[in-house]
Write a structure and sequence with these properties.
- The chain is mostly helical and about 70 residues long.
- The protein has one domain: Orthogonal Bundle (434 Repressor (Amino-terminal Domain)), CATH 1.10.260.
- Helix 1 packs across helix 3, helix 2 packs across helix 3 and helix 2 packs across helix 4.
- It is globular.
Length: about 70
């Protein structure tokens, strides 16, 4: 799984909306949507902000495929 898919998986697991996560991370909802679809990659800073909103470490967004098993 890619970073965007991992973000979506965690976001949905925590029952958070794209609008909420985007607002808290300081990005637009359309940007978050593009990240989740894999058409854009987040910068390191944006990745850290999203991870913070989701309550996980940045590394979690990169290695989540271990949790899907």
């Amino acid at each position: 799984m890619g970073v965007g898919e991992n973000i979506r998986w965690i976001r949905e697991k925590r029952r958070l909306t794209q609008a909420y996560v985007a607002e808290q991370a300081g990005i637009s909802q359309s940007m978050l949507c593009q990240i989740e679809r894999g058409t854009k990659n987040p910068s390191l800073q944006v990745g850290k902000e999203i991870a913070n909103v989701l309550g996980c470490e940045l590394e979690c967004l990169l290695e989540l495929n271990k949790l899907h098993k």
